[in-house]
Amino acid sequence: MKVLIADKSAKEGIDALKNAGFEVDVKTGLNEQQLIDIIADYDAMMVRSETKVTAKIIEVAKKMKIIGRAGVGVDNIDVPAATKKGIVVVNSPEGNTIAAAEHTFAMLMSLARNIPQAAASMKAKKWEKSKFIGTELYGKTLGVVGAGKIGSRVISYAQALGMKVFVFDPFVTEEYAKKLGVEVKPLDDVIRSSDFITFHIPKNKETAHLINKDKIAMMKNGVRLVNVARGGIIDENDLKEALISKKVAAAALDVFEVEPVADNIFAELDNVITTPHLGASTVEAQVNVAVDVAEQIIEVLKGGSAKAAVNIPAMRPDLLGPVKPYLPLAAKLGKFTAQLVKGPVSEVEISYLGDISAHEVAPLTVAVLKGVFETALGDSVNMVNAALVAKERGVNVKEVKSGSAENFSSLISVKVSSGKDSKTVTGTVFESYGERIVKIDNFSTDVAPNGFMLITSHTDRPGIIGKVGMLLGDSKINIASMDVGRETIGGKAVMVLSVDNVISQDIIDKVNKIEGITDTKLVKV
Q1: Does 192 lie in the same domain as 89?
Q2: What's the total number of domains in the chain?
Q3: Structural domain boundaries, residue 473
Q4: Residue 45's closest CA among 286, 396, 294, 305?
Q5: 174: annotated active-site residue
Q6: Residues 113, 192, 209, 277: which is the catalytic one?
Q7: pTM for the predicted model, two decimal places
Q8: Is residue 2 helix, strand or coil?
Q9: Residues 47, 294: contact at Cβ < 8 Å?
Q10: Active-site hit among 50, 136, 259, 515
């Protein structure tokens, strides 16, 4: 079998592939057409960030079984095209953890003590001691946005230097926060309270331009920002304005919205430190990620499974077959339920009822967890790492099996709990009608879990449904379908409205003000 190394990679990774008996070609710097011309000959491919693995390349990769990215992000690989083609895409999510955390802290200390600027001054043969007076980290408050592997390590470094740490992370429970020794706060509270803020989150639809002029306006005057995560989390133009006005005293940026940077808009600003995406650029990290990905390529080419696939990994057909029709439902139940719960998730309990309980349900549990976490974490959570994400976040996961499924042949029931709230959503798959949510808490429903859904909790009384419909109609929101479940006449009830458009928070607030409605949530599946 043949493996293509398309970007410069550590020798140790290449040697591991050769020692496993594979033919390895190192061909770097190829453009799309050059790759299209040769890719059909290869069974596997390893890249870093330079090579773009496009849908056109994947389309002609007839023998390709696995594409490995020696790093964390897979922005340069068309993952949907690879998945459609049956190609496993893997990365190395842990290989550069230490390197990225250390680079973050190097940037943090450089900001505090003006080290790059002072070094440049000395090289210019100047002695400007009074110009570069810094600030101590000891006693200052560090805001950490994202407390995964890298963020957690940064927290430990900060604590060692006597910093107080506030964390924003939707999936950090009180128990996990205590373990880290930090205080968890909403994002706005973190950015209002912090002297330094560092980001350790993926870039997705929810986090793109998360930090903009409105968020910056909430910050302390003289705040300092560090981004060694992903470009585009911070609106670069808004940040530049804040740096010029000194609202933001200084910033250290290792990542940018467009890379490589052709025109560095921060180049003329003395209060900005920029580095060319060096977060993973240590000898040790490059070796770690190359070897990690090489080992996964070896495993897949020999018929095994990858440990860090970013798309659905290969599973034994005999185990996957009986539960495969329920995989989309499981993911939707997780995503649906998690959006109903207030507060950070602390526990996920999945009950398998009826015929399905007799089968291997591990893939379904992973799919549920993927759904629970992907609203906040986006593409960084997948079918392989979902269980690990739950473990790292201190989320307790339970599986329950029972041969009884009431009036259904099979049911999956997902209960998601936070410290103060819990919701249970139950679903099944009908051969003729597909996926259906048949119960929300104790309310019977018949809902297709697709698109935007407005969920109301209310008292069963005349006029409420009509008032909601009128309000949405006046707001040009089209209702595609409606389902109402109730406990008793005049008692508690749940209504699910499938709508064609996203509903603004302003409209949701108006729905909540209708007499008899106790809670309203917009869910997207």
Answers
A1: no
A2: 4
A3: 450-525
A4: 294
A5: no
A6: 277
A7: 0.70
A8: strand
A9: no
A10: 259
